[in-house]
Design goal:
- There is one protein chain.
- The protein is mainly α.
- The chain has 2 domains: 221 residues, Vanadium-containing Chloroperoxidase, domain 1 (Up-down Bundle); 52 residues.
- Helices cover 71% and strands 0% of the residues.
- It contains 15 helices and no strands.
- α8 runs antiparallel to α10, α8 crosses α13 and α14 runs antiparallel to α15.
- The protein is globular.
- 37% of the residues are buried.
- Keywords: Membrane, Transmembrane, Transmembrane helix.
Length: 275
């Protein structure tokens, strides 16, 4: 399986960056044509769509709040932790991709400094699930970046060979990605364009992570069993963090993530002991 993923990654070409860059240009031109390159107007042109989507998705607060946690790298990565043992190449790409996404997310949030919905609108005028986020860091959506970064790494790792299956697989990726990403609007944390922009940046981050892992062997040590004690320690720390999340929020997604990570921890300890 690891060899198959390596082969899939080797077939990826740089032209795949053209489409997301084109979409980013389209978004910028759209904002420019509407005089929305300033924060106030950026919010105003999305006001109606934000309230519509928020009202519709906010009818399922428990589901939305659980799904939105996939934008937390700790949670999403926990479900994929077992792949470190069986398909380490995915994790080599994933680690690079997540670092790239972080380099995009934090600076851009500070540069644009767009107020969150809860910092602009009356809290009684829309649905807020969980704690109201009132910072000036709405654009782009960090959760959306994380979701699409991870999904992009998985998309190309398991890309089918036949064209019709590739199309279906890609559409499934887009649908799942936006179902998860738009929960950020549903819980009242982001505007629609925050999510769309974040998804594009996440896709670019995922591609960059794959290209970096192809060219540089930065994370190849994770496939070496002598370094498993480091991974075991990291898994234990992550388990503790998830237990803290369970205590604080008691969401089912945290229980599932903890179970996945615990199984992976058991597996990696077993493999290490049998070396």
């Amino acid at each position: 399986m690891n060899t198959s993923v390596v082969n899939n990654y080797s077939r990826i070409k740089p032209f795949l960056f053209f489409l997301p860059l084109f979409f980013l240009i389209v978004i910028v031109l759209f904002l420019y044509s509407n005089g929305a390159l300033c924060a106030d107007q950026y919010i105003q042109i999305q006001k109606d769509s934000f309230f519509f989507i928020n009202h519709y998705l906010g009818q399922y607060p428990n589901l939305e709040y659980n799904l939105t946690q996939f934008g937390d790298a700790l949670v999403f990565a926990s479900f994929l932790s077992i792949l470190i043992v069986y398909i380490p190449k995915i994790w080599e790409a994933l680690l690079s991709a997540l670092l790239v996404s972080l380099l995009f997310s934090c600076p851009l949030k500070n540069i644009f400094a767009v107020p969150r919905p809860a910092a602009v609108f009356d809290h009684d005028s829309f649905i807020i699930v969980g704690k109201a986020v009132c910072g000036h860091n709405s654009l782009p959506s960090g959760h959306s970046i994380t979701i699409f970064t991870i999904l992009t790494v998985l998309l190309f790792a398991f890309m089918p060979k036949k064209l019709k299956f590739r199309i279906l697989w890609t559409f499934a990726f887009i649908i799942v990605g936006y179902i998860l990403a738009f929960t950020r609007v549903g819980i009242g944390a982001h505007y629609p364009l925050d999510v769309i922009t974040g998804s594009i940046i996440g896709y670019i981050s995922g591609l960059l992570g794959i290209f970096i892992s192809r060219k540089y062997r930065i994370w190849s040590w994770i496939n070496n069993k002598k370094y498993y004690p480091v991974l075991i320690l990291l898994f234990v720390v992550c388990c503790i963090l998830l237990i803290t999340r369970i205590i604080n929020d008691n969401l089912i997604v945290f229980y599932l993530a903890f179970f996945s990570l615990a199984v992976s921890l058991y597996k990696i300890i077993t493999v290490y002991v049998k070396k």
